[in-house]
Amino acid sequence: MTLVVFPFRHDDADLLERSIGIAASHPAVTRVLAVGDVPPDDATREVAARASEKTHKPVEVIVQERIGTLRPGKGDAMLTGLSRFLGDPKPDRIHFYDSDIRTFSASWIERAENALDAGADVAKHFFHRSPTDAQITWHLTKAGAAMLWPRSRFPDVHQPLGGEFALTRRAAIRLWESPQVRERSDWGIDTVLTFSMIQQGLALHEVFVAEGKEHGYYGSLTDLAEMLWECLDALQRLAPLDLPEGDRPTIDDEGTVSKALRDQVAYDVAATTRLLATDLSPAAQTLVEAFPELVPLPVAAWDDRRWARALGVLLAEFRLGNPAWEELAFRSWVSRVLHHTTVNVPLGYEASMGRLQTAVEALRG
Ligand code: DGY
Question: Which atom of ligand 1 is nearest the CA belonging to 135?
């Protein structure tokens, strides 16, 4: 018996009806919960009522509760789903999916159910991504994890920021009881969940989704600034904690990468390049004098060595909510992403993905 949870934002609910319908129709699914950042309007309630009527299963749309202690965001939506699951003794599994996946289908649920049937505590989806997508994942999350916990499996997890996974009840209880999970109400939730899955020694199966996660891409990288800062803060708060080496996860074989994805540019490069043309604020300028690793050099200078030095400083010194630190963290990361886009990506898909992987491995020492 499985509960499927869709965290969603009110401005991102276009595909909710389709996603809810697919989940509710799956034979293993006994309940569906969509958790939004604002109270549901009449149209959204009707979407849930129609799906419920058609499938004879409970389908609800609710507003997220205030559970974490940081900015109320995606973390609160996921924690609300977890808390509802733990408060209902009937389902023995919970799945999470972003609601805006255009390629969502019953097979996402199927693959995760199969992995849990085979003994995994956690089934975590992964899929191919464009060489210019996943730029927080590569440059911050995997790279930061490689610096902080070089012997652990964290840097190897394909999509540590992925919001698509399934848990047994045992795994859900272990995660819910982790204090770092319960405080994380914002974009940092995925980082702490991945960390805690490994910390708790849960058996992880990474399930490959061949059709990929087609979702909306970004304008300039400004769209990702808040996510960047909150994911950085999550790593900083986890930094004092240890991670065991752990067993190798079970990982599905990957298929071939589609031509469309190989060539896809995931953000607006011209608009992002223009962001670097502005001067630093006086407060950021003062910080740069103390931390020369963050001096805004031209994009070509942001190679692996410079980024490693900058990331070391950011992990130690960044302050979430401090505008000068946020400006510097964003600017450094933008420079690094543009470096990858202009230096590595033209080498072709395999070479550019190889460069991302090599940079992470080098940080493990
Ligand atoms: C990431 O880096 O994985 C985020 O999803 C943004 O693309």
Answer: 2
- Per the DSSP assignment, residues forming a β-bridge with 122 are 167, 204
CB within 8 Å of 9: residues ≥ 6 apart: 36, 37
Q: Is the pLDDT assigned to residue 245 strictly greater than 90? A: no
Q: Which of 18-27, 32-41, 119-128, 240-249 has the lowest mean pLDDT?
A: 240-249
pLDDT of residue 215: 66
Does residue 136 have its Cβ closer than 6 Å to ligand 1? yes
In angstroms, the CA 216 to CA 258 distance is 17
Q: pTM of the predicted model, to two decimals? A: 0.97
pLDDT of residue 44: 92
- Residue 218 CA: nearest ligand 1 atom is 7
Rounded to an integer, the average pLDDT of 250-275 is 92
pLDDT at 174 over 80: yes
232: Cβ below 6 Å to ligand 1?
no
Q: How far apart are CA 99 and CA 110, in angstroms?
A: 17
What are the structure tokens assigned to 293, written together?
């690793």
Residue-level pLDDT at 42: 92
Residue 165, Cβ neighbours under 10 Å: how many? 26
Distance 137 CA to ligand 1 centre (A): 5
Q: Rounded to an integer, what distance in angstroms lies between the CA atom of residue 139 and that of residue 359?
A: 9
Yes or no: say if 35 and 67 are a contact pair by the CB < 8 Å rule: no
Cα(134) to ligand 1 centroid in Å equals 4
Enumerate residues 6+ apart whose C-beta is below 8 A from 100: 8, 12, 14, 15, 215, 216
Q: Where are the alpha helices (DSSP H) in 222-322?
A: 225-238, 259-263, 269-275, 282-290, 304-317
Closest ligand 1 atom to residue 138 Cα is 2
* Predicted local confidence at residue 100, as pLDDT: 82
At residue 165, the 3 state secondary structure works out as: strand
Residue nearest to atom 5 of ligand 1 (CA): 134
Residue with CA at minimum distance from ligand 1 atom 1: 134
User: Is the pLDDT score of 216 beyond 80?
Assistant: no
